[in-house]
Amino acid sequence: MSTNTDAIDVVDAGATSLLRFATAGSVDDGKSTLVGRLLHDSKSVLTDQLEAVERASLGRGQETPDLALLTDGLRAEREQGITIDVAYRYFATPRRRFILADTPGHVQYTRNMVTGASTAELAVVLVDARNGVVEQTRRHAAVAALLRVPHVVLAVNKMDLVDYAEPVFAAIAEEFTTYAASLGVPEITAIPISALAGDNVVSPSANMDWYGGPTVLEHLETVSVVADPSEDPARFPVQYVIRPQTAEHPDYRGYAGQIASGVLRVGDAVTVLPSGRTSTIEAIDALGQAVDVAWAPQSVTVRLADDIDVSRGDLIVPAATTPGTSQDIEATVCHVADQALTVGQRVLLKHTTRTVKAIVKDIPSRLTLDDLSQHPAPGELVANDIGRVVIRTAEPLALDAYADSRRTGSFLLIDPADGTTLTAGMAGNAFADAAAEAAPATGADDEGWDF
Prior knowledge:
Blueprint: E1 18-25, H1 31-41, H2 47-59, H3 75-80, E2 87-92, E3 97-102, H4 110-117, E4 122-128, H5 135-146, E5 151-157, H6 166-183, E6 188-192, H7 216-222, E7 236-237, E8 240-242, E9 254-258, E10 263-265, E11 269-273, E12 277-286, E13 289-291, E14 293-295, E15 299-304, E16 315-318, E17 326-335, E18 341-342, E19 346-351, E20 354-368, E21 373-376, E22 380-381, E23 386-397, E24 410-414, E25 421-427, H8 430-442
Parallel strand pairs: 1-3, 1-4, 4-5, 5-6
Antiparallel strand pairs: 2-3, 7-16, 8-9, 9-15, 10-14, 11-12, 11-16, 12-13, 12-15, 17-23, 17-25, 18-22, 19-20, 19-24, 20-21, 20-23, 24-25
Helix pairs in contact: 5-6, 6-8
């Protein structure tokens, strides 16, 4: 890593890199089978796990192992044959490490997909080749666009059931790509597969010689997810104030946390928000060693040249790129709790390491993901609803637009009575921002997005 230039050298997408990805699709499109095939064919399944799946499959009268059982861990899922919860799995190949989230396909579990895809760098959307792009496919594409997932893979599954026909794949790929691009999805890769037979999942298919692209695993291993942190403004939420007050370090005062974005350097002029006080970075400690530069997502301790009041929840930012602070927040949200979110409701708002009291001032609209229409003034949001809210906080907050930073542009609304997470929020009009970015490139009409 270079410490004496403005740019930060980043590692190539290789053996040390980590990819977080999520799978989504309609019920019975084969999400869990695909994930199971990835784990099995990449030799990431322990012997005892495979034996358990074989026993469970035999108990259900199946002659071959049902690889979907490797991810459908809940008893209710195994009995119903659907995915309800988000099943997380960790595996690695010689080229990359992976954290995957197998998310539910049913419409009533949209909130689970939001949870699983919120930190994903790539989403795999499955489509049954026999059914093509359906309502739930469009819904998942919309959620991926809403959450600003930078890479989307369209996996056209069950190609074996349509005789591996290229025209079937081509028609589905064109329809989905056009739709997803109009939503603002920046990169879409279409791959024809058969998760059950293993075609184009880990190994290239001998049945589709007309396809010359990568397999699913090859794409997952090679897609670029490493960005230059110096391209983003620095954001450092303070998690903990370190004051040992020992004879050895009588005057030590450090601010510990994880850099959310950007690069911090010794000597940088910084502003502490929301107070607005200014200082200079005097030292940066990482893993017990003094360093001259640190970048996201490193966890470090920052020391300032001036003895100013800084506490947990404050945000240290470069003086030249200071975000505005406000007590009035307009955001796009996904409601995840069973209890409704209503106008006038008092909540807690958690943004990075800061939690403040807030009140829901207005719910201007609710989005219908089926056709992307808006329902004005719904009065409340119920589980799985996505809509717009206006929130008034008791203290000023420094939020970036979610379109600019997924980390510092997101927040949670929490029930102050029992600590239940109510709503996941994204500052700004996430859909309008995505569509506006897509419009020049695609020529898509963004009418109806500004809701």
